[in-house]
Amino acid sequence: MSDVHVFNAGPCLLPDQVYDRAAEALRSFAQPGVSVLSVSHRSDEWVRIMDETRDLWKRLLNIPDGYDVLFLAGGASMEFLRVPMNFLEHKAAYLDTGIWAGKAYKEACGIGNAVIAASSADKGYTYIPKDFDIPEDADYLHITTSNTVYGTRLKKDIDCPVPLVADMSSDILTRPVDISRYALIYGGAQKNAGTAGVSFVIVRKDALGKVSRHIPSMLDYSLLSEHKSMFNTPPVFPIFVMHETLRWTLENGGVEEMQRRARAKADLLYAEVDRNPLFRGVASREDRSEMNVTFVMSPGNESLEQEFLDFAFARGIVGIKGHRYAGGFRASIYNACTLDDVKSLVQAMKDFENR
Ligand SMILES: *Cc1c(COP(=O)(O)O)cnc(C)c1O
Asked: Can you tell me which atom of ligand 1 is nearest the CA of 144?
């Protein structure tokens, strides 16, 4: 067991194997002494990494024919803009479940007519709206399946009468997904798929090409797809890290096994949050995320917050301070986080109570 336990929300902990292979490739990639940072992105060696990365995504998520997987610079926030550029003609609908969903909505408002289908802002985004009406005349509905800041998560692939677009930044590769229900899925890589600097976009090709506006090249999914994500120089190192992260995910049993591990880790941590009288969970129980566990000091104990952060830090627990908008604590327990990491945090919570 390592002495340090990293619970950062993103960029986050990655498996040791990924750090090792990335470090090795910085020195020797195409041949000994030639770094991955220094080969042409048009070389056979690099094109093989691009092809393998695409294939790994397809295998891991059972992506059906007719979909492409793109790797693009700009992070998830750039997809907030690319999505309405490529899909919004008359009207777009957004499910408002937090800061990220709100930012996606705001970008759409700059492009055309966007509406909020439902919102959980009334209770500080601590739950997921259920049974809301989806406007049947919308070009698409945009959802955020995992709300990284608040620790809520949409647990099912929803039935949607219009094309469905999902930001899956913080829960991709943590559970099986029925890809065929979605027109497009995207996210920043830095939570379960690698490090910052690249986003993944899984897109149904026949959903593209339906808007009348001129789309600038770097925002045009069709063009980027035609060029196999290499319209310009791609972010080579983040893509390499993604390649290694996906390999690790597959070698460790794929998304079913990641889901099993995620449940075990989340169950352990939530059980302690619920049991320990010093702490209280934030997200409503039925919508609790298995990736970002949010909690606060219980009423009357608020003044102990900094003390607990220091107490945990002294035991090697890093990155549990809540998002600046949400406060309290947030432990991000993504795929690379082990059950032992979670046990260390749980033990710290118990010891803090008994101290
Ligand atoms: C982290 C995160 C983002 C932002 O990703 P960037 O790559 O920094 O733009 C967007 N949406 C969700 C759900 C996130 O967790």
From this structure: 13
pLDDT, tens digit (0-9, with 9 covering 90-100), for 257-278: 999 999 999 999 999 999 999 9
Token match 């986080």: residue? 337
CA-to-CA separations, 15 to 91, 144, 244, 246, 332, in angstroms, rounded: 42, 25, 9, 11, 14
Give the side-chain half-sphere CA count within 13 A for 33: 0
Could you say which of 167, 171, 220, 341 is catalytic?
167
Looking at residue 326, its pLDDT comes to: 82
Identify the pLDDT of residue 2.
63
Q: What is the pLDDT of residues 29-57, one digit of tens each?
A: 989 999 999 999 999 999 999 999 999 99
State the chain's mean pLDDT as an integer: 97
Cα–Cα distance list, 352 to 70, 184, 206, 280, 348 (Å): 46, 45, 55, 14, 6
Q: Is 167 a catalytic residue?
A: yes
Ligand 1 nearest atom to the CA of residue 189, by list position:
7
Closest residue CA from atom 14 of ligand 1: 169
Above 60 in pLDDT, residue 1? Answer: no
Global pTM reads 0.97
Q: What percent of the chain has pLDDT over 70?
A: 99
- CB of residue 157 inside a 6 A radius of ligand 1: no
Provide the residue count of the chain: 355
Packing angle, helices 254-275 and 339-354, rounded to 10: 0
pLDDT at 134: 96
Pocket of ligand 1, candidates 148, 172, 334: which has the most ligand atoms within 8 Å of its Cβ, to mutate? Answer: 148
Residue where the block lists tokens 């997987």:
69
Our answer to whether residue 228 is catalytic in this structure is no
Cβ atoms of 105 and 129 within 8 Å: the answer is: no
Judge if the beta carbon of residue 75 lies within 6 A of ligand 1: yes
Q: Where are the extended beta strands (E) located within 107-158? A: 114-119, 140-144, 146-147, 152-153
